[in-house]
Amino acid sequence: MNDRTIVVAGHVGSGKTTLIAQILKITNTIQKVEKSLLDYDPIEQSKNMTINLKAFRTKYKEYDFQFIDTPGFIEFEGELMSAVRVADNMLIVVDISMGIEVGIERAFEEAKKYNIPIFFAINKCKSYEKDPQEILNLLKSKFSKQVHPVQIPIGIGSNFNGVFDIINGDYNLLDENLKKQATEKYEEFIEAVVETDDELLEKYIQGEEISKEKIHDIFRKAVDNSLFYPVLYIDALSGVGVNELLDFIGEYGISFKERYDDKPFSSLLIFKTYSEAHLGEMYLFRVYSGKITTGMELKNSRTGTIEKISHIFIPFGKERKEINELKMGEIGLVLKLKDSKTGDTLSNDNITYDWIEYPEPLYVIGIKPKTKKDEEKLSESLQKIMAEDPTFTFKYDPSLKQTLFYSQGEVHTNIILEKLKQRFSVEVEKEKAKVPYRETIRKPAEGLGKYIKQTGGRGQYGVANIRIEPLPRGAGYEWVDKIFGGAIPKEYRPYVEQGVKKAMEEGFVLGYPIIDVRVILFDGKYHEVDSSNLAFEIAGSLAFKDAVSKAEPYMLEPIYNVEIYSPEEYISDVISEINTRRGKIMSIESNKISAQIPLAELYDFLPALRAKTKGRGRFKMEFSHYQEVPINLVKQ
Fold first, then answer.
1. I want to staple 253 with a disulfide (CB 3.0 to 4.6 A). Which of 12, 89, 422, 453 is the partner?
2. CA 403 vs CA 359, 419, 438, 488, 604: distances in Å
């Protein structure tokens, strides 16, 4: 049970990718520490940031390590969520020069969901002249007293040249000053360990002697159950402390077999889809039971499709090594599946593994293709990108005549549009997302519609009299036929209604659909020869427009119920942001605000909320009702 699958997470810029590169160099898997070997995507290189999760395998001493590198930028948290779902351990990399940023908090939250061991590595200890105790205190106050160092750093800043293991190290090798530090930290360590076990805590309080072996056993159990969070010190760029980090995670991390029992069938879970021009879609998966071999046929539990595993690869960044078999717990790559996607289970049994729910894409813009050629390829190209990144979506709204693009934020949007251009040669222009405004009427009115053309031969003749009345908000549309006798024959009346509906769609004030109106057809005239379906359709349309012009039409806008979650210290800033967006506060709890906000103010609310809350704010929204647009905005 010497396999260790570790998701490496943390805030953007903390050095996660550099650390993995250093590990791969230490284990002779690559020749030099170079981020570009791992972040090989041209967009990642141009932005100098990880965008896609990636898996790397290496061997260190008796341990088989699988590392999953993840982006630290909040707009790519879907990648973190996918990676944590299939990992057994988490290593959170913390930049010694920064505070507790949102990327650290999100990583911790995700790992806690799955109850996997969490290790902290305080990085850049050699790069900054900072005492690691400062960041350690912040970690403790944020996450718990059980965040505790298992090492002491030897030297600070440019003098940082090693670490001492306070659990297993030889104290006789230390000078008096370091020995004192290490002893103090070990005593604090024992207190933190016993607090994770009620029985042990009672003995400790009563002054009973507890053996080192017992402490060690409880410590291991606490780490396994995510009740104790060991802290280690490293400098990824120079490599100081990285060997000791691997030793520690090797010894105290858990293996797949310790979390899951093997089953008498073969199964895998797809956790990432990639797309490459010459290969098409590639699927990153983890074997959850049995073994996966070349030529094997497995059923997709979502679609029922039988998928043939024609080639299996071990992923290594951009490189791939073909093999014939993968065992339980191993990560692999397969090409050319017929009908599978991220989150799917493939097996030769009837099993489905749970998948995650990604954050809803709430940042909205409009996009339009630059050329006719771009228009033809746009939808298909975006679908391909969406297969590898399910955290965005798009749709064409026929009523707005606009393609709306929903993402996790501005950077996320720009990255996807860059992929669109680089990979598929499709270019789009960004524009402000349109709002589905509506129109309605304030009072009842009557309208007359005449369409008469009689110039010899067959003419056109249709006359319709209608009355319109406002309905309660949300009531929609109601048609009432009150014709008595033969003013308009029965066969023509549906065409009057058809004309009315067309006029309602066209709007009156600013061209938006008219809603919440009752339309009563009460009179009209026809001609035995010249009347036609078309004549009465046009008459209906004219009658409606005539009535609306007298009924005091006005504009409506969609209002959404919004639930906003924010740490308490930012609540007042969030309230002021809601007020500037014409929002109405409905209730406030400790870290949740319920409000009603116009949709026009919500399209770019996500980046504003993140700015006010240092990335920690979240919200969800659902349609509530339509209400009148303030007159000053209609004039604008």
1. 89
2. 21, 18, 19, 42, 16
Buried b (16+ CB within 10 A) or exposed e, 593-609: bebbbbbbbbbbbbebb
- pLDDT per position as a tens digit, 387-403: 889 999 999 999 899 99
Cα–Cα distance, 58 to 66 (Å, whole number): 7
**Number of domains making up the chain:** 5
Greatest pairwise CA separation for the chain in angstroms: 118
570 with 560, same domain? yes
C-alpha distances (whole Å) from 375 to each of 402, 421, 424 are: 12, 13, 12
Are 546 and 561 in a shared domain?
no
Q: Are 272 and 53 in contact (CB under 8 A)?
A: yes
DSSP, collapsed to helix, strand or coil, labels residue 427 as: coil
Give residue 590's domain range: 556-635
Of 497, 526, 551, which one is at a domain's C-terminal end?
Answer: 551
Residue 197 and residue 299 in one domain:
no
Mode of pairing for the β-strands spanning 63-69 and 54-60: antiparallel
Q: Residue 519 corresponds to which tokens in the numbers above?
A: 């339309």
Q: Residue 621: phi, psi to the nearest 5?
A: -145, 150
Decide if 335 contacts 305 (C-beta within 8 A).
no
Question: What are the φ and ψ backbone dihedral angles of 460, each rounded to 5 degrees?
Answer: -130, 135
Instruction: Please indicate, yes or no, whether residues 91 and 32 belong to a single structural domain of this protein.
Output: yes
Spans of the chain, pLDDT less than 70:
35-37, 39, 456-457
Q: Give the CATH number for residue 452.
A: 3.30.230.10
Query: Which residue type does 382 have?
Result: L
Evaluated on CA atoms 580, 584, 588, 591, the torsion sign reads negative
Cβ neighbours of 205 (radius 10 Å): 9
**254-286 as b/e: b if 16+ CB within 10 A:** bbbeeeeeeeeebbbbbbbbbbeeeeebbbbbb
